[in-house]
Amino acid sequence: MASVRSSEESGERMLLRPQQPYSYEETIRRLVSFEKTAYRSEGGKLYRTLRLSKRPVVVELEWEEEKSALAATVDTELDDRERMDLERILRRMFSLDVNLAPFYESIKMEPRLAQVVEERKGLHFVLDPTLYECLIKTIIGQQLNMAFAAKLVDRLIHLAGERLERAGEVLAVFPTPEQVARLRYEDLQALQFNRRKAEYVIDLSRRIAEGKLNLDELHRLEDQEVVGRLLPLRGIGRWTAECLLLFGMGRPNLLPAADIGLRNAVRRVYELDAQPTEKEVRQMGEAWSPWRSYATFYLWDTLSGQ
DNA sequence: TACCAGGATATGG
DNA sequence: CCATATCATGGT
Fold this sequence. Notes:
Elements: E1 3-5, E2 12-16, H1 24-34, E3 39-42, E4 45-51, E5 56-64, E6 69-74, H2 80-93, H3 101-106, H4 111-118, H5 131-141, H6 146-160, E7 163-166, E8 169-172, H7 177-181, H8 185-189, H9 195-209, H10 223-230, H11 238-248, H12 260-269, H13 278-285, H14 292-301
Antiparallel strand pairs: 1-2, 2-6, 3-4, 4-5, 5-6, 7-8
The protein binds a DNA duplex (13 and 12 nucleotides) through residues 138-139, 141-149, 151-152, 192-197, 200, 234-240, 243, 256, 258-265, 300, 303.
């Protein structure tokens, strides 16, 4: 994909064309309502810090309507490797290469879900840039309402990550495992983490920092193998492992059937008298294969906002 | 006030 | 093996 160097500033800008159908508006709407921390939204532009191979940068994102492309701008000059890095990261994060046409075609058989999908045409997953970030954010989000969970994530980032300045504003970078490994449990308790959650987050980070756990190895495993590999770790249950497969890895056919949010959404969309059981959700979800992740994602989206 | 949040674990039966 | 309490806070 072409990247253009601006002559006026020292930064540069690249254009990334997504697989259609793609709705930047829908995708960002969900992101902004759900992720109060990692992204900063201002005047139609979105800011997010990302780690390239050697250094963190602030990336400014906006939709370029005439070219139907995502425009990414950084205020620093990138070398070839960083440029390729950034493009790869963004294409993956914003699911730019995921073709939803087959999903939309197959979902026509499910009228109620088809309605939900129709209202959100082009909505794509936004993945976390790293499996580590995804795992930590998911653990923090366990059991908590999303607003509070976002607050805790924000506090962790500002405590442990570097700070970058962009247009007079300070943005924190999601910390590395090494940075979190250096914290004490009490540091996170002071941020209103409960003791156990402070242990989950720090112990996991230490394990990774010490080289005893390599999350990137998970990429080559099947879904169920990934779950099996993660379950023995303290603080990671099935739900958390599945969230990693969804929001860290973008696996297409996951169904977190026990998830309380999904069950509430299914109840509403299918107008059931009672909250369906995990088993019932699993049975209904058979019909959504091999797009169960996206079906889940669209159902989750019915919960936020409205 | 009570109860639930896009859970996981420790403990007791 | 199953049931229940616990967590730390915000929203309803």
